Amino acid sequence: MTDAPLLHYSTSSAPLQAGTPDKPAAGTIDITVSSPAGQNVYCDKIDIAVPVSAPDDGGAYFTGPLQSSITGKWNLASAQLKTGQELGLAPATNYYHVVFQAPPIPGFDLIDTPLKISIGGDVVATPGSTLTCPTTETSGTTSGTYSRRTPLDLTWETAEPVFYLHSFLASAPDRPTVPRTKFSAGDEVSLTWESNGSYFQLYDGDGTTLSEGPATSWTVPQGRILNDTTFTLQASMTSEAQQSTGIRPAYQYATITVTITNPTLNQVTATNGTLTPYVQGSVDGRRGRVSFSDVGAEIYDNSGAWGTVTAGKAELDGVSTAWVQGRDSYSGRITFVTEGMNVYRDGGQDWGTVFADKADLNGVSTSWIRGQDTDGGQLTFVKDGLNVHRSGGQNWGTVFADKADLNGVNTSWVQGRSTEAGWIGFYSEGLQVYKGEGNHTWGTVQADKADLNTLQVRYL
Fold it and tell me: 111 FRET partner, CA 20 to 30 A, in 1, 45, 124, 191?
């Protein structure tokens, strides 16, 4: 196999990026295959050996699976991992052996238009080293008559990789492949990024450093994020050349904003108002709530039952409530019923007392009225009128007044203001006049004139 290749090969001129084993750099090698001008070359197979392990000379190599393609009428016949010994090459190196072949159709083996081959994957190299791919053709000057030609080493130079930082993403730790930016307050948030940088610093919205080092991921711990936060990632890379010359490293930056659906905020100022169905507190595990409805606001306690409004003063146009009570459970209570209101004592159902300096009422409906102490007189209201009792008991009491304007008076007797004054007793026959001292000694009627129908006396 001493015949030189008949076809002409040209390769992409841009250097490949020199990645490292822990951070390979994506790279693609392009090969254009054509016939020399004025010559007919027939070829039915081209195979390329791409190194996929470190060569003995320290050159570049690919890692992982490769992607191969060819334009035109040809096809990819096979792609297999082989040792250098199997291919007659450097035995210590492994190769990705790619074979392209012309279809067994007359005329398809004539290379009358260029074939374009692409092979891509991740490249590892020391910057300035060379990627070498032995390439062998099976060709001839007559269709159907081919011979395997001497392998031709196709080469690509490598250079410092282009510094990149991308794919800065957030996700839930239990679903790392699903990007998301909305979380609940206190959730764990997994942050990941892709870069060939050597050192990373992650900052929160306040500029506080959350993480630093060579790792390309970090998980925000539970309870850390309580409101919307923009994370800033700084990536730096120092090449070997920079390290040797003392040049400052290069930097790349990326940001991502995480939105919290139920944020905890220090203060909110809304110049045009706040639209929300409810406001809920969160203090020491207690979560009272104010809900807004068509009729106003509703207050709930931690269990979802009606809650309490505590304030120094409330100025309202009206209050609609079933009852009002003092600050403790032993205070009196006023309940509002259809007929009016009831006053109870000690938070129970026993009737209570209303104390006031003055009451201006259109009417009072009550069984009795008594003075402020137990020794005071009492008025009792009965069907026939009212009874006046003394000293909180059932003994008849006294009505004191400057004047009484009455349509009639029903009484057993009438006496002057003192016990020494005379008195008049009323009986079925008429009236009798007695002297003072409260006895039954006849008294004297004194008058300017008496107009009588009949006069009966013992003497004149």
Answer: 1
Is the residue at 311 inside a domain?
no
Domain end point (choices 120, 139, 159): 159
More confident residue, 428 or 32: 32
User: What is the rounded CA–CA span in Å between residue 186 and residue 258?
Assistant: 12
Range of the domain at 437: 413-447
Indicate whether 197 and 112 sit together in one domain: no
**Percent of the chain predicted with pLDDT > 70:** 94
Say what the pLDDT of residue 2 is. Answer: 58
Indicate whether this model's pTM tops 0.85. Answer: no
- The burial class, CB within 10 Å (0-12 / 13-18 / 19+), for 394 is exposed
Give the contacts of 434 (CB within 8 A, at least 6 positions apart).
422, 423, 424, 425, 440, 441, 442, 443
Residues 6+ away with beta carbon under 8 Å from 314 = none
Residue 405: count other Cβ atoms within 10 Å of its Cβ: 5
The residue from 107, 129, 159 where one domain ends is 159
- To which H or E segment does residue 193 belong? strand 189-195
Q: Residue 140's Cα: distance from chain center in Å?
A: 73
Residue-by-residue DSSP string for 82-146: EEHHHHTS-TT-EEEEEEEE--SSTTTTB--S-EEEEEEEEEE--TT-EEEEEEEEEEEEETTEE
Selection from 305, 300, 304, 308 nearest residue 324 by Cα: 308
Residue 395 maps to a domain: yes
Q: What confidence tens digit (pLDDT) does each residue in 110-135 have?
A: 999 999 999 999 999 999 999 999 99
pLDDT for the residue 297: 83
107/195 same-domain check = no
Residue type, 78: S
- In DSSP notation, 200-268 reads EEEE-TT--EEEEES-SEEEEPTTS--S-EEEEEEEEE--HHHHHHTPPPEEEEEEEEEEESS---S--
* Dist. CA 215–CA 195, nearest whole Å: 10
Do 65 and 128 fall within a single domain? yes
Percentage of the residues of the chain whose pLDDT score is greater than 90: 47
> What would the pLDDT profile of 390-434 be if each residue is shown by its tens digit?
876 778 877 788 888 888 888 878 887 777 788 788 888 888 888
